[in-house]
Amino acid sequence: MTEAPRRLRPEFEAEVLKAWPDAVLVDGIAMAKENVRSLMEWLYADKFAPDAPAIAFRNNCLRALIAEFERSAASDDDTLAGRTRAYIYANIGRKITLQDLAAHAGIDRYTFIRSYKKTAGITPMEDARRIRLEKARDLIITTDDPLWSIAERSGFSSEFYFSQAFRRAYRIPPSSLRTGTKARNKS
Hints:
Largest sheet: none
Radius of gyration: 17 Å
Oligomer: single chain
């Protein structure tokens, strides 16, 4: 059974949310606000730990926090990238191909790739991988599900491929994130 997450002190939470007002104005704010709250809580709880694993964990939490603010602030539901991301989120556990995304957008693959990269700054498949990794990271942090199940629920074809992609993106193996999260929740 997972332990309920600790809450930030209200004055600290208010400061954080006031510093980034755009993060609370986007669609789906409850999720974004909860992710920000959890990440800030872990950073605050671990702020004085001097050991190397704690420093690495803080750095990864900061990267995740920055990514969450960027994702939340990018209110692009009416753009090609926003509609495509909504489709990816809705179908995250399924295999999604470039052809599927282009068909959903109603344009050919090559035009889709060029237009998407121009508006989003990355290719649609890179964005899909990023979204899948965020989903997996959230599941690792919030559940006790085995990694193979998290890989499957996040749309990865295998646990091995998921672990490789996770390590490349976050610079730690998924099992280390889980171990670090459990250790911090106990304190």
